[in-house]
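[audit] Reproducing an earlier prediction to check determinism. Same input, same settings, fresh worker. If the tokens differ from the archived copy the diff job will pick it up downstream; this log only records the rerun itself.
[audit] input (207 residues):
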Amino acid sequence: WLITGLNSGDGIYSAQSGDIDDSEESVLSILINVTRKDSLAFKYKVDCEPVWDVFEVKADSILRFTASGTIDWSSISFMLDTGIHQIDFIYKKDNVFSAGLDAALIDDVRFPPFTSIVSVEEMDNLHNSFIYPNPASDYVFVKGYSSKGIKTVYIYDVNGRCLYRSSNDIQNKYPLRIPVTGYNEGIYFIVMETASEVITSKLIIKH
């Protein structure tokens, strides 16, 4: 996805899906730590081949909204519970034909109250070197961050359920070893809490 000033729903800029070919998709993923149940709201516009090319919005891999064809700027919202959520804005094409702008656009995105927010791509680039191995099968290790004074480490599933919480003050006890043999294969989130911030990284479990 890219920022454009050519077509906006509110103000000057909007985010537009990338330039993709047939049978491809353009995905903007955002990880958000919601502190109070509230709605995620945004404006959207689609201009594409009806039915076959589609704009989708997913929360934790669950489809929450879809649109296709030619729709001028409109508004949509849906509720998010407290906890960690991955939001995916997806524009995908079938294997033939194009129409209109051949794109989806979003603008004026309003999130529920949160303590941290980062794109999944940015998050992985920043923090993957501190979570290893990733993917993990038996154990996952958390290293580094001792200078940041981590107080607690959590593991959440994609539904926002807390599956692990470090039991004691773990500062200066690195690397922290966490057993994951009992976890199903899939995507999880490791959340590291300091006195001033919440640091989140995606974890993949494969057995």
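[audit] rerun output stored. Observation attached for the diff report: The helical segments are 120-127.
[audit] end
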